[in-house]
Amino acid sequence: MALGSPAARRRAAPRLLAALLGLHVFAIAFALEVSVGKTNTVMALNNSDVLLPCTFTTCIGFQDLVFTWYFNSTEMIYHGKIKNKASEPVLVGRNPRVEFVGSTTGKDNNISIVLKNVEFSDAGKYTCHVKNPKEKHAQHNATIFLTVVQKMVEADNTVTLIIVGVVGGLIGLLILFMLIKRVVLFIIKKTQDGKKECLVSSSGNDNTENGLAGSKAEQKAPPKA
């Protein structure tokens, strides 16, 4: 049968689909990933220094990797290159108030920076962008949002405490209700068992008395004529 026949094409279609799916899964497994941590928001005091975290991962390693930090997507504030895993980043360009504090020769590929003497105008979006030529020039980025305040305000946990107290109280009442219910059911059961024992005992006594009376009547000799 010819390879180009409809039947042959139908048989080949599932194998082709499986191969494409396998390539897709392989690409995902080895994809470049960039992260700024569990939260993408940072708050800093005016005139203080703030850490902007960023790490990247790649399963096939990197070669001549390039990373760049942007402010509000347009202004480049730090630009560096890393030759390989055995090398630390080399500075290409940076804002004078930005300092590199990461390291890429350890376990984590850390390319975090510190922004010094934060001002209110520094509030905004900071993007950590990474490009890895070894992964066919794969690119990925992650964004962190900076808020600058005059002073730190303690979070008001009153509402949270009230909610926790109400929930705890309801749970306590539910447990108390279940305990009372079990005690009441236990008492009712004991009472019913006691009544059953009394009924059985009373019935036995009645039967015994009736039986004795009958025996005595039967044993009594009939009067002589």
Largest sheet: 6 strands, mixed
Shape: elongated
Distance between the termini: 125 Å
Helix content: 25-40%
Strand fraction: 25-35%
Number of helices: 2
Indicate the mean pLDDT. 82
Low-confidence stretches: 18-29, 212-218
The secondary-structure class comes to alpha+beta
The counted number of beta strands is 12
Tell me the series of helices and strands, N- to C-terminal: HEEEEEEEEEEEEH
What is the oligomer described by this structure? single chain
The strand line-up of the biggest sheet is: 2-12-11-5-6-7
Rg computed from alpha carbons, rounded to a whole number of angstroms: 42 Å
Architecture blueprint of SSEs:
Layout: H1 6-29, E1 33-35, E2 41-45, E3 50-52, E4 55-57, E5 65-71, E6 75-82, E7 90-94, E8 98-100, E9 109-110, E10 113-115, E11 124-132, E12 138-149, H2 158-219
Parallel strand pairs: 2-12
Antiparallel strand pairs: 1-4, 3-10, 4-9, 5-6, 5-11, 6-7, 8-10, 11-12
